[in-house]
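REQUEST ID: PR-0412
SUBMITTED BY: lab tech R.K.
PRIORITY: routine
TASK: structure prediction, single protein chain
INPUT:
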Amino acid sequence: MKIVSACNWRTLILLLACCCGGAAEGAHHYVFFNRERERISDALFIETKALEGAQLKYTWRELEPEKGAYDFSAVQHDLRFLKEKGKRLFVQLQDSSFDPAIINVPRYLLKDPRYHGGADKQYNIEGEEQHAVPGGWVARRWDPAVQERFHELLFALGKEFDGKIEGINLPETAVDFGESGRLFPKGFTPEVYRDAVITNMTVLKRAFPNSVAMQYANFMPGEWLPDNDRSYLRSVYRRARELNVGVGGPDLLPYKPAQMNHCYPLIRGCAGSVPTGIAVQWGNYESRNPKTGKQVTIAELLEFGGNYLRVNYIFWCAQEPYYSKRLIPLLRGKR
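STATUS: complete
OUTPUT:
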């Protein structure tokens, strides 16, 4: 009889867990309810033990309605409720949007000229840049005046919630201002942006030394791997490891070429050294697995996130019917 090594036994156990409806070993499972925060009271969520908590989105605008005047009541309410139910809270702090009608930075940033508009348009670009159309907004993360205000928010949040929440993540690094420079906002260059991302996650870690501090880092402007590698994304991951800042991002799309060339190998390379996470976003359940040519299954998402990427956290989108009809039964161990 062939003797199976301990390593192979572990691999076998992990694969069986996926096939039989169990959770991948070592991964903490959270539901990303986005801004539908009232859904933390849903019985499906509360009664599923494998779901350790909720990842909820709070915007900069709602947390700082007036300059220096913070309103954390929504976070406090959700944290208190989850704690009573034996669940944990993971905060996503949002300063960007993918809707031209939504600006997620405080109004005072938009009105006071010292902040140079406070936020800038992102674009949807198909073909030539002259045909670009607005696709959302992002805070001027690279602007020192805006950064200063953002850092004050991080320290205020940390004073209130560090060690009480499971973690906090900054949204994805991907922004789209085109490549030629004609759509670049004032003061923006890829190099300045890279430095700003690193500065912001440095402050995030200082503000949250005890909770998980995580930067979603999926793509960076000014490069496209593997052919045009300017080391922007790699430098973010390298500095995150030095700072012990967690890394991850959207989306969980097994074997998708763009992610396989960018964030996936970097997330996988950080496994075991810093906290890592991956988010199942709206539409991910409907994507196709390039290896099978078929719609991806929950088990495949679980296997790729938990066993290939080896992340510590999987944040599951609550998109229906996949959430209640497929994810919950699998996490509860049903076939």
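NOTES: The chain has a mean pLDDT of 92.
REVIEWED BY: pending
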